[in-house]
Amino acid sequence: MSIRAENISWRAGKKCIVNNVSLEVKNGQTLGLLGPNGSGKSSLLRILAGLRRPCAGRVLLDERDIAGMAKKSVARRVAFVEQHTMTEANIRVRDVVKLGRIPHHSPLSSWTQEDEAIISAALERVEMRDRSEQGWQSLSGGERQRVHIARALAQSPSEILLDEPTNHLDIHHQMQLMRLISALPVTSIVALHDLNHAAMFCDALIVMLKGEVVASGTPDEVLTEAMLREVFHVETRIEVSPYHGKKHIHFL
Amino acid sequence: MTMAAVSHQTRKTAQRLGLFLASAALLGLVIAFGVGVGELSIPLKTTLLAITNRLGLTDIPLNRIHETVIWDFRLSRALVAACSGAGLAICGAVLQSLLKNALAEPYVLGVSAGASTGAVSVVVLGVGSGAVSLSAGAFTGAFLAFLFVAVLTNGARGGNERTILAGVAASQLFNAITAYTISTSASAQQARDVMFWLLGSFSGVRWPEFQLVLVVVLLGLAVCLYYAKALDAFIFGDDAAASLGIPVGYVRLMLFAVTALMTATIVSMAGSIGFVGLVVPHVMRYFFGPLHRTLLVACAMMGAIFMVLADIVSRTAIAPQSLPVGVVTALVGVPFFAVILYRSRTAA
Question: Which CDD domains match (chain A) (predicted)?
């Protein structure tokens, strides 16, 4: 088991944001997190990345409790792509991706050729290699998102956590990114809003509502008309696509 | 990596090194120039010989008065100015990055307001009854203000807005105490002295001050450079830094404490000289980008050069009287900064 969460809960003030959530993902699999706004997806991802300490329960990486691991060794295997990351600084694309190599270095060590090769490969993967000298402020929202993903890949993680990564992307880059994520040889946990992406690209899904898990399993098991009505309050008809063989959701 | 990329990288490193050496040479020249300028004008050659004489490299007899003026007054003063400028610029760069606020500067944590209260307590109220110097009082006040902010923000873990608000609160409080003390207890002459000190001046600094400020600024620069990668990781915010394995709370508190120590030391010697810590980092970012290993060194060099020049102008502009150096930094710096701002607007 690559990453596992056992009965984690987390509160912001008195409000319970994540309530007794358990999950596990096998090596190399892609887990989709679904749920309406405010259902606790982002908070759950932050806990899994070790950025928030749960008030109950624990997160295990290869059966080791994340609370007992050094922050740096967590960062060497878990990469996290946030939803909104802004900066005023006009940092070069290549230098953003280089940030991903920080967990692999001591404060005074200098960059190696291996770092440079990993950075170039990560930029290649998100089709941003030819933009590597460009400044951050000159990039579009979608390009910035791809650079962030390249930065995450440069961490050489075995788990990658993404919070709504297809926001701001045009349809070509949405599809390219989801294909990339599902094809990566690393374990991925992705918060998603697009239900058809969830059906097409995820190996397993978890549906959250008010901080609790209300459904989990394969996309085939989880995505039902009844569930979508109950959780998202939408009327749908679901059929198996004759083109890709996965479920396809029509909204009525 | 391709050969082209390797050679590109080495060329850039060589360029940076060349620039560093050039700016170091320029700093030396500016200091030597600063030593020569004044009521008693001393040729550059005499200045250089006086220095090499003292270092035991040469033994050429010089005018005794020249040598005394160089060695006992102007050289120490220029060197303190250089260290102060470097320190303020470094602090500004670090605080702007940590607080993610373009308006952050060395005094944002209330340090200068605390220093002024400490200085006024000594000068006007006679706290310590003569045993405590103005500098010691200022240093104590500065550190009290920083403690006040640190407590209010739970050891700087309370987020950027809260840290800045706590700094503003501390500044207001201590400025109010200063103003209250001056208006109730000070004589006109005392008030004038304090005002002059608050705006900043390097008059009266000698070798002991230089030794202290040199050690503090070099140590501070070393600590900040040690955390240069961590500071880079803060570019996209605290959570982004944490997800890169940076112990965010610890690094923030450490760097806040180091910048407060540097600022308190400088303010206690020369008053709160504005503008350098705010603007030099912006200008250096414009030229060298936001990565801190280069940025911090560039800030140190530029801050030092700028401050020595500002001190020269403050001594000579309305000689035999001298202007507060803080007035000069703003008057000279603002037009220069305006040009940079204007150009970056058209470039973006």
Answer: ABC_Iron-Siderophores_B12_Hemin
pLDDT digits (tens, 9 = 90+) for A191-248: 999 999 999 999 999 999 999 999 999 999 999 999 999 999 999 999 999 998 999 9
Residue recorded with tokens 């300490």: A53
Token reading at B106:
């060395």
Residue A71 at interface with chain B, using a CB cutoff of 8 Å: yes
Q: Are B227 and B251 in contact (CB under 8 A)?
A: yes
- ipTM of the predicted structure? 0.90
pLDDT of res. B348: 47
Q: Could you tell me if residue A245 is left (phi over 0), alpha (psi between -120 and 50 degrees) or otherwise beta? A: left
Establish if B239 touches chain A: CB-CB under 8 angstroms: yes
* Chain CA centroid to CA A246, Å: 21
Q: How many domains does chain A have?
A: 1
Q: Which of B97, B221, B231, B236 to mutate to test the interface with A (most CBs of A within 10 A)?
A: B236
- Residue A112 touches partner B, C-beta closer than 8 Å: no
**Residue-by-residue DSSP string for A206-224:** EEEETTEEEEEE-HHHH--
Euclidean distance between CA atoms A31 and A45, whole angstroms: 12
Q: Residue B227: closest CA among chain A residues belongs to which residue?
A: A107
For residue B320, cis peptide bond before it (omega within 30 degrees of 0):
yes
Pairing of strands A78-81, A204-209: unpaired
- Where residue A184 sits, what CATH number does that domain have? 3.40.50.300
List the one residue out of B29, B10, B28, B90 whose CA is nearest residue B297.
Answer: B90
Distance CA B201, CA B325 (A): 5
The pTM for the full model equals 0.90
> Quick one: which of B90, B84, B82, B103 has its CA closest to B33?
B82
Q: For A130-157, what is the mean pLDDT?
A: 91
First and final C-alpha spacing in chain A: 39
Mean pLDDT split into 10-residue runs, chain B, 348 residues = 60 86 92 84 84 81 83 89 96 92 86 87 73 79 88 75 89 91 81 77 86 95 96 92 93 91 89 88 90 95 94 85 86 79 64
